[in-house]
């Protein structure tokens, strides 16, 4: 049986965090439950429904507190210079999007990941938003405050 823990569900609308929820259950159960919930919000005539598992690498300042280390140790902590890097399992459920040639614009989607702290949430959301930005747009730009 998958390990139960605290996961964060982040609703993104038009490149902004619209809502955050903390859910206590296994990560896979959380993802499956939100896929079911979001199917009702999806319009199959206007959009694709996409579920992606995309691990996100985040940087953490060293030294890590004991509490923070306990939260991230299972995700493979590596020292890189004066930072620690961790690969966080992350799921994206995209339920409102449109295609512009080869590029997809996601209007509304949900990001689900283990809850570590708000800094990790911001890093992951910024990574995802920059990966969804059309080529050449928003390069070097931060989407959210850190």
The average pLDDT score comes to: 89
Task: Please give the alpha-carbon distance between the first and last residues.
Answer: 35 Å
Structural class by SSE content: alpha+beta
Share of residues in helices: 10-25%
Q: Sheet with the most strands?
A: 5 strands, antiparallel
Strand content: 35-45%
Element-level helix/strand string: EEHEEHEEEEH
Radius of gyration, CA atoms, in whole angstroms: 16 Å
Number of strands: 8
The number of helical runs is 3
Envelope shape = globular
Sheet with the most strands: spatial strand order? 2-1-8-7-3
Low-confidence stretches: 136-141
Describe this structure in words.
- A hairpin with a 2-residue loop joins β5 (78-80) and β6.
- The chain has helices at 27-39, 66-72, 118-132; strands at 4-13, 16-26, 50-53, 56-61, 78-80, 83-88, 91-100, 103-114.
- The longest helix is centred in the C-terminal third of the chain and has 15 residues, at 118-132.
- It is 24% helix and 42% strand.
- By secondary structure, the protein is of the alpha+beta class.
- Strands 2-1-8-7-3 form a 5-stranded antiparallel sheet.
- The chain has 3 helices and 8 strands; from the N terminus they run ββαββαββββα.
- The protein is globular, with a radius of gyration of 16 Å.
